[in-house]
Design goal:
Layout: E1 3-5, E2 8-13, E3 16-21, H1 25-41, E4 45-50, E5 58-64, H2 66-83
Antiparallel strand pairs: 1-2, 2-3, 3-5, 4-5
């Protein structure tokens, strides 16, 4: 696991990164809204949201080419450094 906080977790996956979020309806709505915005500026990424019934953990996978994975890791490092994680 790269990072985790209050129900959030981040792991490297084969094709990129995998985020875990609480599975409540509001978080699902926010993640889907974010994906809708991000896919406009990052067409080189594939966004996959996995959600099962109830409030079970939700998964967001961001995958792509080797260049896309390098981009994700750079962005992740910058954001973690910025918030002091």
């Amino acid at each position: 696991m790269i990072a985790g906080r209050e129900g959030l977790a981040l792991r490297k996956s084969n094709g990129g990164l995998q985020y875990s979020f609480p599975g409540d309806s509001e978080t699902l709505r926010l993640v889907n809204r974010w994906v809708g915005l991000e896919r406009r500026c990052c067409p080189f990424l594939t966004f996959t949201v996995i959600s099962t019934g109830g409030n079970e953990q939700m998964i967001l996978r961001l995958t792509g080419s080797e260049e896309a994975k390098a981009f994700l890791l750079r962005e992740l490092r910058m954001n973690i450094d910025r918030i002091g994680y």
